[in-house]
Amino acid sequence: MGTAPESQQVEDPPSFKFRWTIENFSRLNIKKLYSDIFYVGGYKWRVLIFPKGNNVDHLSIYLDVADSTTLPYGWSRYAQFALAVVNQIHSKYTIRKDTQHQFNSRESDWGFTSFMSLSELYDPSRGYLVNDTCVIEAEVVVRRVVDYW
């Protein structure tokens, strides 16, 4: 069997794994916190967390289109992504959840309102908060982008 010419090979979609280390986590006295911006597929993303929960007794984590308010009318992008709270004692207990979403101006963030219980997160013996530091990971794959100019 012959091989396909270079021009016909399917490119892997752009992907990136972002690691966010948050120190003094239990002392965060704010409703929500944004990570630094990271780029996947040439687009700006960030992670949004509610350290004390988004009106629930769970940690809430979302993937957010960082520049959604300045994008042109009708913008849309589709991503598959995983969000994780890393277990710093036993990595096999890292909590990871996968989802996908068509992001647009009305739904510029997507994720999990009840990602994990606050009691589990804040219990130092469980390994998710070590030396009052929480580690969150986001793995993002951008599948396609639709812009209507």
TrEMBL record:
Listed Gene3D superfamilies: Apoptosis, Tumor Necrosis Factor Receptor Associated Protein 2, Chain A
Keyword Coiled coil applies: yes
InterPro entries in alphabetical order: MATH/TRAF_dom (IPR002083), MCC (IPR050804), TRAF-like (IPR008974)
Residues of the MATH domain: 15-140
Source species, domain of life: Eukaryota
Key words, A-Z: Coiled coil
Presence of the UniProt keyword DNA repair in the record: no
Pfam families: MATH_2 (PF22486)
Protein name: MATH domain-containing protein
